[in-house]
Specification:
Blueprint: H1 2-5, E1 39-40, H2 45-52, E2 58-63, E3 75-76, H3 81-87, H4 89-92, E4 98-103, H5 113-120, E5 128-132, H6 135-138, E6 141-143, E7 149-152, H7 159-174, E8 178-184, H8 190-193, H9 196-208, E9 221-225, H10 237-246, E10 250-255, H11 262-272, E11 277-281, H12 292-299, H13 310-324, E12 330-334, H14 336-339, H15 342-362
Parallel strand pairs: 2-4, 2-12, 4-5, 5-8, 8-9, 9-10, 10-11, 11-12
Antiparallel strand pairs: 1-3, 6-7
């Protein structure tokens, strides 16, 4: 069953998915009467029908929500990034396919319970958030403004700070809308990579010290995302899996050029099965490990697919369909840097999941 879930060749679809490559969104025609504020785009019946065919345990979404280029895809009209940062979330949450979103600003500074509560008040009860832990506890180095590591971070993997500055306020503010609380561990300096078993035990201590999630949030899960391939090497993979399993946590699939391909990350999920899926599709591999600036320059304003990634799309869809088919939760958030336009990639992934379910049920 696990081979069927993780990594086999998907069946041939009965019909190819709709190709969206380099097709810009068609903005909704403006109403004769000018309206103020941010309002939903017009979503056609096919999009609603697609949403209704997705597994109920699947939550798809984007990384953040403040992109003016999503005009016609998520909202109508032209808006500034600043306005969308304040007013865009409740509109995003009305989109038929969007049932989660990643709060990324928490990585740069800890948020308060009140901050989280303001987010929770803007979305439906069945919406779930994916939240990044602050770099205060996930980065082994104190960094300068240009991102260069300056000196060791004394708070790295500090269990008490993680609970105080991240897990506890997120649970208090988001409540049942808490989804995945992700500790994204920044690239480690070589002296720590050489002592990865010690780092893994520090990670175990941190995870096991966090407040219980289920009383406040039945769907919540702690997840760990990494940025160094050494975590997934055969010498460390069983230890990593044991740390996560013993802590009730899971691994966050990271689709990022710094990491091995998705197929090579799935063995860790096999070791953790059964359990939920957490995935953050961050960066198209065509840009290389340090390619965020190149992706931003090439993809802005994020209104179309630029670099389709059909291999990751197909394997991720198959994995999602298999896991949700066993009644496990799946949280998948997608960046504009994945293919050029996160809402369109969400739609492409949803179409693939439905196609896989169709072919599986008819096989």
């Amino acid at each position: 069953m696990q081979d069927d879930l993780f990594g086999g060749a998907p069946p041939s679809p009965s019909a190819p998915p709709r190709p969206p490559e380099d097709t810009p969104a068609r903005p909704r025609e403006k109403s004769p009467t000018r309206r103020t504020g941010v309002h939903p785009a017009t979503w056609d019946v096919d999009l609603h029908a697609l949403a209704n065919r997705l597994p109920p345990t699947l939550r798809l979404g984007t990384s953040s929500w403040s992109y003016p280029g999503w005009q016609g895809l998520v909202w109508e009209g032209t808006h500034s990034e600043q306005l969308l940062a304040r007013k865009g979330l409740p509109v995003l949450a009305q989109h038929p396919l969007m049932r989660t979103v990643s709060i990324d600003r928490s990585f740069y500074r800890p948020l308060t319970a009140s901050d989280y509560a303001r987010y929770a008040a803007q979305v439906p009860a069945d919406f779930r958030f994916v939240v990044k832990a602050p770099s205060l506890v996930t980065d082994a180095l104190v960094r300068s403004e240009d991102g260069r590591g300056r000196e060791p971070n004394p708070a790295f993997l500090d269990a008490q700070l993680a609970a105080q500055e991240f897990v506890a306020p997120a649970l208090e503010g988001l409540g049942q809308r808490t989804g995945a609380l992700v500790f994204q561990l920044s690239p480690l300096p070589w002296n720590l990579l050489d002592r990865l078993p010690e780092v893994l035990e520090r990670l175990r201590t941190l995870l096991q010290a966090q407040p219980a999630l289920r009383p406040a949030a039945p769907d919540a899960v702690l997840a760990v995302e990494v940025r160094d391939p050494e975590w997934l090497a055969p010498a460390h993979l069983p230890h990593f899996a044991d740390v996560l399993r013993s802590s009730g946590a899971t691994y966050c699939l990271g689709l990022h050029a710094r990491l091995p391909p998705l197929a090579e990350q799935l063995p860790l999920l096999r070791l953790l099965w059964p359990g939920p899926l957490v995935c953050r599709w961050n960066l198209n591999p065509v840009h290389g490990p340090q390619g965020y600036e190149a992706a931003e320059k090439g993809y802005a304003p994020y209104d179309r697919i630029h670099d389709p990634d059909p291999d990751n799309l197909a394997l991720l869809a198959r994995t999602v369909a298999g896991i949700c088919g066993r009644d496990q939760n799946a949280f998948v958030t997608i960046s504009n840097h994945a293919e050029g336009c996160a809402p369109l990639t969400v739609q492409r992934l949803a179409e693939q999941v439905v196609l896989y379910d169709q072919n599986s049920s008819s096989a």
